[in-house]
Write the structure tokens for this entry.
Amino acid sequence: MTASTPPKVNTRLLAAALLRSGGMAPDPLESLRLGEIYIMMRFACDLRCAACSLWGDTGALHQAGAAAREPAKGRGPDWTEVIRQTAPFKPRMVNFSGGEPLLHDEWLAPAKEAMRLGIETSLTTNGIHLEKRLSSLCGAISQVNLSLNATPLISGLIRKGPKGHYEKMMRGLRLFMRVKKALGQKAPRLRLMCTVFDGNAGHLLELLSYLKASGIEADQYYFQHLIYNTGPELSAQERELKKMGMKPWFMRGYSLLPKGLDSKALSLELDGIIRSDRRVSLSAGLKGKTLDDHYLGKHGWTMPAYCAAPWRDITMLPNGDVWICPDYHIGGIMEKPFSAIWNGAAARRLRARLLKRLLPGCRGCFHYYCDKETGKERL
């Protein structure tokens, strides 16, 4: 096997992961349970963050025709009904995302329905509209995931948006702290997420210090290593998906390559943030040569060789397309009920493939890293 050849799947580790999630079925190509439902309600966002897979420097939505996957307002799925249809599969979490979900309140009714059905809810945001929407979040959202990659000192270089957006976000966070103090455990949890790349390396401890000096205390600080695929890896991934009848476009959003980064200094910095606070976690335990290679654009197959995501996690696009792997479409929720999609022919075909060998683009995907060394999944 060459360095670029995807490894054979370790079916023992895959089975163990499925047992942990409660989704293992007698038929290995079926799944009895959902993990995370990740709903991209709308693509619109009022920030342009450098490392964003949608609107960043290499974001997928810059491609011609990508925005056509978002229907006109009022013509998309009934998300509350979607939650009801997925409930029999006992999902662990539904994550309302985008784009920026706080630009609208279309997440509110389905979030309340999920809570009524006993399903944990989260919402992933850039935080600009947190102050305006916080009262709605309380009682409907279990956890707020806020993406924040920099202090004000360098934010303008890697997080571009309307004038005053950073201070607007900080006002929302300060209000959040007051609400958490007043409501205690009835308030949503706060998870601050930071993508580590050459744009903010050297400023990670500075970010933690700034937040704490500002009175912001999160329940978790999650630092995610830059996820990327090189040009040849993306081409190989697209060839594989086209063989399975797919029309790939989204994975192109994960093509921002690391550059000009001192990995030894980064290693010391990562050790420092881990020691600084027990609430800090990393997306993967990359150390030594694996860390060096990752940020030199030569990432290897460093994680255990399996992916459980197609048996437990789904992504839904604004038009109702359902994916169990980036760019892998298993049906449309506006054309078929979810029960006919989840263990349908398309889903079974990919699961059969992933019982044998990983795909060329797997190491440039979030799911390759989660539930392995750190045990920290996207919540």
Notes: The chain is about 30% helix and 15% strand. The CA atoms of residues 50 and 56 lie 4 Å apart. Confidence is low (pLDDT under 50) at residues 373-379.
